[in-house]
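Researcher: Please translate sequence to structure tokens.
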Amino acid sequence: MPKVPKEDGGAQESESAAEQMHLRVLAGGAIATAYKIGFLSMFYSGPIYKITEPKFGISRPDFIVLLCLSRMGEANVSTIIRSSGQPRANISRATVRLERRKLIASRKPAADGRQKLLTLTQKGEQLLAQLLPMFVERYEQMFSVLTRKEMQQLDKLLMKLAVRDDGWIREY
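Model: Translation complete:
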């Protein structure tokens, strides 16, 4: 019977067949670590988007655009794509929706009129202020099982993967 990790580093016996299958998917194969990252990402954000989409009309790409602009101040679509890992079509559609709702604004810089520069409007900032507490709460729940040191190690390793400059991260 598969073992389930315990906080003290030991293991306890798994009790259900479904849990055994779940552990088998997470534990094995050549892509197990990448699969776990995707799994955790979905369980982190999925429950939030089940609320934000019907209640606020905000999808995952919409939130990503709002969050990126809140951190960047002003950016074009390409910069948001590079910073989020989202497909161009998703981000482009999100910017159209958000601009229509007056949550973001755009302007064409004099130097290069091809790329619009996007900014968060006051209305967008207010909406983001309503959304962020849900993400923070879910984040705290997700990482509550890690010690401060483990969290620092994880963050350092994830940052190493995210800011690499070997060409692996590129638009798709």
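Researcher: Any highlights?
Model: Residues 32-56 form the longest helix (25 residues).
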